[in-house]
Amino acid sequence: MSETLYNRLGGEAAVDAAVDIFYRKVLADDRVNTFFEGVDMEKQAAKQKGFLTMVFGGPNNYTGQNMRDGHRHLVKEGLNDSHVDAIIEILGATLKELGIGDADIAEVAAIANSVRDDVLDR
Amino acid sequence: MANVQFENKTYALNEDETLLEGLLRHQVDYPHSCKAGTCQSCLCRTDSDNIDPTWQKGLKPTVAAKGYILPCISRVQQDISITLPSDDDIATVAEIAELLALSHNVFCVRLTVNNLDSWTPGQYLNLVNPNGVIRSYSIANLPVDDGYIELHIKIMPSGVMGHWLTTEAKVGDSVTIRGPIGDCYYCNPNHKAFPIVLVGTGTGAAPLLAIARDAIKQQHQGDIYFLHGGVTVNDLYLDSQLKALAEQYDNFFYESCVLEEQADIKALMLKTLSVVTKPMVYICGPSEITLKLKKQAFLSGVSLSRIYSDAFISPVPDKPQ
Fold first, then answer.
1. For residues B23 and B76, is the Cβ–Cβ distance under 8 A?
2. Pair B202, B236: CB distance under 8 Å
3. Residue B104, CA distances (Å) to B99, B108, B202, B244, B259 in order
């Protein structure tokens, strides 16, 4: 297991493949899609690409502070643990659809979980 | 060692640093966020002839083709000059060549300029009248072929530009146009035969007509579907022109729908998308319906990278004095 998670998942090509599927699932999910009403879809997709690169263990410059600043306005609108759970679930379903194995999905979910407190500003 | 020119100043770049790193090292207040070629916050434009494709990773082809790059992933070997997208619409003087009504509420303005080839069919521009009123309109024709830029202006009851055009403006008057702007145009350098689905309501049909004519002119091999929606049949102001195109070209299909007859553009779009494979989708019109259609097209399975749209934003009316 010397290869990194990011390379095992397929690197940047995997992120590109995942972003449309992930974003489509998010917009179709009534638990979380209200937070995405009226956003610029291109800008949002670019941010999600950054997020996916991060949780895939890839090269990125996202910091806890970025995640905190980027979600603070949503926390005021009621963003809470249940929404983070839903996003991690959608992330898992996306990866499953791309044929990623359970062990790697768990590793991705763990990285996503590690920014939970930043996202929820606590 | 190369230099970067930005906002009339020149900054020396170190070996191996990106354009963005160089600008930030010189303490330039330059917009940025991810520094990884992802968020596109630092997008800028250059007129350099030596753009390396790696500087444009993830940009739509229509954006890349207009000389846009991402400084956070650009390492340059030669001097380069860059401008932010907000500063790159250049003012051009134009002359009104023709004014005509296309329907009960759509007015057509034809403008002559010296640099017709700069105005890509489907992009938009800002029209500034002699009173300083400024509004955005899409290029509705093939300027180089026609010899003029055509704009379709919806006449609103309290619309200032529409009022000026229909009551005061005369052929021969000078106006200023700024632009062109936007990534909503036909771009197919490798002559691929993908289907094109054009979806618009009202004067959203204007840029779509330009894009359709441009695709036909460039001998696009895939099918082209033009879907136009209106509230009443009177809103289908290009009906005869689009029917003529459908008669003339085997790969051009035109369908329309009007709300008054309970026919909905969203249903028409989804029906069309269900019968085509890997289409390029262009959606134009008033912002509310355009954003809804864009989301529906994406949810139905079209990749975001294959959806181009221009959402027309109505100006906020001035408060009465």
1. no
2. no
3. 14, 12, 12, 21, 18
DSSP codes of every residue in B11-45: EEPPTT--HHHHHHHTT-----S-SSSSS-TT-EE
> Which member of A41, A42, A59 has the closest CB to residue B295?
A41
CB contact under 8 A, B34 and A60: yes
For B40-66, the pLDDT digits (tens) are 788 999 988 889 999 998 888 888 888
pLDDT the model gives residue B170: 96
Interface test with B, best of A6, A41, A52, A65 (most B CBs within 10 A): A41
Buried b (16+ CB within 10 A) or exposed e, B272-288: bbeebeebbbbbbbbee
Structure token pair of residue B258: 């009007």
Provide the 8-state DSSP code for A50. H
Task: Look at A61 and B303 and tell me if their CB atoms are within 8 Å.
Answer: no
Buried b (16+ CB within 10 A) or exposed e, B208-236: bbbbbbbbbeeebebbbbbbbbbeeeebb
Q: Residue A40: pLDDT above 80?
A: yes
User: A94 CB near a chain B CB, below 8 Å?
Assistant: no
Q: Please, are residues B13 and B2 in contact by the beta-carbon 8 Å criterion?
A: yes
Asked if B311 reaches chain A (Cβ–Cβ under 8 Å), the answer is no
Q: Which residues contact B255 (CB under 8 A, 6 or more apart)?
A: B225, B226, B227, B228, B268, B272
| Cβ–Cβ below 8 Å for A43 and B40 | yes
- CA–CA dist B319, B321 (Å, integer): 6
Contact present, B184 and B282 (Cβ < 8 Å) = yes
**Chain A touched by B100 (CB under 8 Å):** no
ipTM (interface predicted TM): 0.86
User: What global pTM score does this model have?
Assistant: 0.87
Closest residue on chain B to A38 (Cα): B291
Continuous segment of H or E residues that includes residue B138 = strand B134-138
**How many residues does the structure list for chain A?**
122
